[in-house]
Write a structure and sequence with these properties.
Immunoglobulin-like; 1 helix; 40% strand; 5-stranded antiparallel sheet; 2 domains; 4-stranded antiparallel sheet; globular; mainly beta
């Protein structure tokens, strides 16, 4: 009986070992999806942030299922995207971020507009999505060093859409200071960045105006720094719209 037990255990070990030794020789994904998210009025890419708080690309593999699980990958900071590890297949592709959704539905779920794109991916597909950002954040002039080594910037913030469903009041306008150009709400120096929140509709008073913001915390350290302004409304993903990052050499 004891011998039978040992033989049984040995067989189980052999079977387990052989199953673990199988090699997955299915080719790795090697096709590419690239492109950009573009402001349909200005033609500029929609500035975003690196990571989960930024614009993301959604892939629905419709050649596999009529109800596929979404696949996501993040856009780069400048509003472009590039994924070189995608399986060739048929996809419905869209982007999600601080702009009017590409797919709009009514109160009962009927599709009103659908600006997503369907592709049959073979090798490379380039997709450019035109969108309406919630806000446009534009520099007015360049950041300026003050006599006390603080920095003052000027920006103008305007609506990027006429859709009343996405014209909520401005909730935040932040001047971010960072030692790299990856300057955003998820990457900034809190000692010198100036963060401003608005309640109710008070933030709407700055729309279309040239606003002036100065860094906080006293003199900036003697190093090159980057500046960026982010503003947001409370809509969809509660994400920021951004200016481009601008570097400044310490005088």
């Amino acid at each position: 009986m004891k011998r039978l037990f040992y033989y049984t255990a040995l067989c189980l070990v052999v079977v387990a070992g052989s199953s673990c030794s199988k090699i997955d020789n299915y080719p790795a994904p090697s096709d590419t999806i690239n492109g950009s998210t573009i402001d349909e009025v200005t033609g500029a890419t929609v500035q975003t942030e690196v990571g989960g708080g930024g614009t993301r690309v959604e892939l629905l593999e419709t050649s596999y299922s009529s109800n596929p699980v979404p696949i996501y990958f993040q856009s780069m900071q400048d509003g472009t995207f590039n994924n070189t590890k995608v399986f060739g297949a048929t996809y419905k592709v869209s982007v999600q971020g601080p702009f009017v959704p590409l797919i709009l539905t009514d109160s009962v779920g009927n599709v009103l507009t659908d600006s997503s794109k369907t592709i049959v991916l073979k090798n490379t597909a380039t997709l450019n999505f035109k969108v309406q950002p919630f806000l446009r954040v534009e520099w007015v002039g360049k950041p300026v060093f003050n006599a006390d080594s603080t920095v003052t910037v000027q920006v103008k913030i305007t609506r990027g859409t006429n859709n009343p469903n996405y014209q909520q009041p401005i909730t935040d306008v932040n001047l971010y200071v960072c030692n790299t150009h990856y300057d955003a709400n998820n990457n900034y120096d809190p000692r010198y960045s100036t963060l401003t929140s608005y309640s109710g509709t008070s933030g709407n008073s700055i729309l279309g105006q040239v606003i002036t913001i100065t860094t906080t915390g006293g003199a900036l350290p003697a190093q090159d720094v980057f500046f960026r302004v982010g503003a947001r409304i409370n809509a969809v993903y509660d994400e920021y719209n951004y200016s481009t990052p601008v570097g400044l050499t310490y005088p």
